[in-house]
Amino acid sequence: MELDPIAIPDPIITEIDTPTEDPDAPPDGGYGWVIIFVCFIHTFWINLWAGSWGILQAALLRTTLKGSSLSALSFVGSLGVALGPALGIPAIRIVRIIGARAGMTIGIVIYGLGCLASSWAVGSLVGLFFACGVSYGIGSAFTDTLYNTLPVLWFKKRLGLANGIVKLGGSFGALVGAVSVGYLTEGVGVAWTFRILGIASLLTGIPTALLIKDRGAPPEYPVKWSVFRDACFSWHFAAGAVGIFPIYAPTFFLPYINNALGFSNSTSIATLACLLVCMSVGRILTGYACDRVGSMNALFFTSLVNAVSLFAVWPFSSNLGLVLLFCILNGLSNGGFAVAIPTAVGRHLPIDDAPGALSLLFTGWAPGIMGGNAISAALIQVTHADVAESIVPFRPAMYYFGGTALLSTACGLVARLIYSRDMRVIA
């Protein structure tokens, strides 16, 4: 009996699909931390100037610009701070052509040379307008654009922490400026103070800017106006445009309030230092919160605390304890706002659209920066708060800024609810 051979089937080799990483996805680390370090240094210098302008302004009025108009000199500072975001779109279009490294280098060179030029223009209001205000605005347009967009290209899951570290550099800059610039103007004069700032920024800014490199092919940084069709972005844009009005109000008004309450000079400095330190802590904590509970959730919480501190705590801060409570609450939330909103936008949009959208976002801040400072000065003049002996004359301004903060909070909440009505969702 013959048995038929049993056919043995050929072994089938099946290919198991293994998940592969998206080569275009941000690496969330590696050389990205070098990029964050560079952004930290440049944010430090940009915010040091903005944070110490009031001290420089006072020194100029005491020495080389005696008899000049306070409002005219204040305009120089306001113009410089507002030009940075206002020129964000032209700056990013130039960066698209020359690259991020050249853009960051140009920004810090214009900033540093502007400080040096300002040292020879301390006796001329018109000279300071160009050498100080315009040059700072143009230089900061490049640096602002890049330190707000580069983290999006290198980080996704840790974007909140990365943005927090970058903005921490700004807080350190403002704190160092508030402490050191006053001593420099008294010790070496305002002209040499400008020279020291210019030389130090060039010596530290240029070498670090050369460390910038593009990840893969240089990004095109497209500015797409169609991004406003995205409802979340549009409401975040509104939240930023309105929310920027009260951002600088505490540092603007705090010296006047301390004087009205009869605080000593050392106590006044301590309250301002408390506010700035809490801003630094708030930026790191908010960055961590963005990665843990969601950037939109963090934005809503920081905006709400900021509004409550301005609307419900500040108007009743008639003693040192309440002033310090306000400084803690407002510092933590105020600093957090600057981290949460770019993280929310950068994380929500596709990576190709995020840099251009962030430029649009910060361009929308220019009217609020310019208008916020002008409104603050006008309110002080109308209510005679500069010669007040209690907190009462400041309350109209406090309620105004608190109201704008509440409106900004509402805009952020709408964006959050559009994303998901379930507040437990990480968004």
TrEMBL record:
<keyword id="KW-0812">Transmembrane</keyword>
<keyword id="KW-1133">Transmembrane helix</keyword>
<feature type="transmembrane region" description="Helical">
    <location>
        <begin position="31"/>
        <end position="50"/>
    </location>
</feature>
<protein>
    <recommendedName>
        <fullName>Major facilitator superfamily (MFS) profile domain-containing protein</fullName>
    </recommendedName>
</protein>
<feature type="transmembrane region" description="Helical">
    <location>
        <begin position="70"/>
        <end position="92"/>
    </location>
</feature>
<dbReference type="InterPro" id="IPR036259">
    <property type="entry name" value="MFS_trans_sf"/>
</dbReference>
<dbReference type="InterPro" id="IPR020846">
    <property type="entry name" value="MFS_dom"/>
</dbReference>
<feature type="domain" description="Major facilitator superfamily (MFS) profile">
    <location>
        <begin position="193"/>
        <end position="427"/>
    </location>
</feature>
<feature type="transmembrane region" description="Helical">
    <location>
        <begin position="298"/>
        <end position="316"/>
    </location>
</feature>
<feature type="transmembrane region" description="Helical">
    <location>
        <begin position="190"/>
        <end position="212"/>
    </location>
</feature>
<comment type="similarity">
    <text>Belongs to the major facilitator superfamily. Monocarboxylate porter (TC 2.A.1.13) family.</text>
</comment>
<keyword id="KW-0325">Glycoprotein</keyword>
<dbReference type="GO" id="GO:0022857">
    <property type="term" value="F:transmembrane transporter activity"/>
</dbReference>
<dbReference type="Pfam" id="PF07690">
    <property type="entry name" value="MFS_1"/>
</dbReference>
<feature type="transmembrane region" description="Helical">
    <location>
        <begin position="159"/>
        <end position="184"/>
    </location>
</feature>
<feature type="transmembrane region" description="Helical">
    <location>
        <begin position="104"/>
        <end position="122"/>
    </location>
</feature>
<keyword id="KW-0472">Membrane</keyword>
<dbReference type="GO" id="GO:0016020">
    <property type="term" value="C:membrane"/>
</dbReference>
<dbReference type="InterPro" id="IPR011701">
    <property type="entry name" value="MFS"/>
</dbReference>
<feature type="transmembrane region" description="Helical">
    <location>
        <begin position="269"/>
        <end position="286"/>
    </location>
</feature>
<feature type="transmembrane region" description="Helical">
    <location>
        <begin position="399"/>
        <end position="419"/>
    </location>
</feature>
<feature type="transmembrane region" description="Helical">
    <location>
        <begin position="357"/>
        <end position="379"/>
    </location>
</feature>
<dbReference type="InterPro" id="IPR050327">
    <property type="entry name" value="Proton-linked_MCT"/>
</dbReference>
<feature type="transmembrane region" description="Helical">
    <location>
        <begin position="233"/>
        <end position="257"/>
    </location>
</feature>
<feature type="transmembrane region" description="Helical">
    <location>
        <begin position="322"/>
        <end position="345"/>
    </location>
</feature>
